[in-house]
Amino acid sequence: MDGFKMIVDGFVFTDRAMAQKACQEVDGIKYVQSKLDMDNPRMALKMYQKLLAEQVFETPVGLSYLKGLQNYLASSPELAQEKLVPIRFPASWQGMQEDTIEWYAQNLEEVKQKERAANFVKRRAEEKTEQVKKRLWISLMLSLFLFIVAAGMAVVTLTSEHPNIVNYENKIIEKYEAWETDLENREQVLKEREKELDAAY
Fold first, then answer.
1. What is the pLDDT of residue 112?
2. Directed axis angle between helix 60-74 and helix 41-53, to 10°?
3. Alpha helices in the chain (DSSP H)
4. Is 60 in contact with 11 (CB distance < 8 Å)?
5. CA separation for the pair 145, 138 (Å, rounded)
6. 0.70 cut: is pTM over it?
7. What is the DSSP letter of 14?
8. What region, left, alpha or beta, does residue 4 occupy, with left being phi > 0 and alpha being psi -120 to 50 degrees?
9. What pLDDT is stored for residue 128 in this prediction?
10. What gap in Å lies between CA 68 and CA 155, rounded to an integer?
């Protein structure tokens, strides 16, 4: 291994020959696209079949292009009755295919577990948020109710004619003042009668 690494059309290649082949396939794809009329599904189908028959593409770059072309043909109503030839996996990739499948099998469960854990955490966070919202709503409603009760009690207390803890002192002072005025009036009346009586004798 000489540490070779080359990126071609989004794919990393560590083999020089394969990287060179991928570069050639990029040029080939550009050429095919320049000649291919995508508005004519029948012609596109013939080109697809020719590319498969001649095994023009062997790297992930070319095979990705073929897969895109296959998807386009499969979605075309004009070709609904046509059976598309599957893309042949290159023989040189067989060992890589087995390694990939083994890696995929080993990592699939781990990925699923991570997704389940992430979904669980997300659901728990949503539930907690919902609980906090409910508690906040209840707290606001209770606070509003208590405020209304307190305001009502204050209004009743301040406007009431009967003595209470708020106006008790004022009511007592007013009552004593009324008694004092009444006593003074009676004293005045008594003094005037006494004068009348004294004047009569």
1. 77
2. 150
3. 16-35, 41-53, 60-74, 94-159, 168-200
4. yes
5. 10
6. no
7. -
8. beta
9. 92
10. 78
Return the structure tokens found at 185: 């009036």
% pLDDT > 90, the chain: 16
Residue 62 and residue 54: Cα distance in Å, rounded? 13
Which amino acid makes up residue 77?
P
- Long-range contacts, 8-17 (Cβ 8 Å, 24+): 8/59, 8/61, 9/61, 9/64, 11/59, 11/60, 11/61, 13/59
Q: What are the C-alpha distances in Å from 115 to residues 109, 112, 122? A: 10, 5, 10
Q: Tell me how far apart the alpha carbons of residues 142 and 150 are, in angstroms, rounded to a whole number.
A: 12
Q: What is the DSSP string of 95-134?
A: HHHHHHHHHHHHHHHHHHHHHHHHHHHHHHHHHHHHHHHH
How far CA 38 is from CA of 42, 45, 47, 64, 81, in Å, comes to 9, 10, 11, 17, 18
pLDDT at 127: 92
Q: Name the stretches of the chain with pLDDT < 70.
A: 1-2, 91-108, 157-158, 160-168, 201
Residue 151 one-letter amino acid: A
- Structure-token pair, residue 183: 């006593």
Q: 101 is written with which tokens? A: 């499948």
**Tokens representing residue 93 in the block:** 């990739």
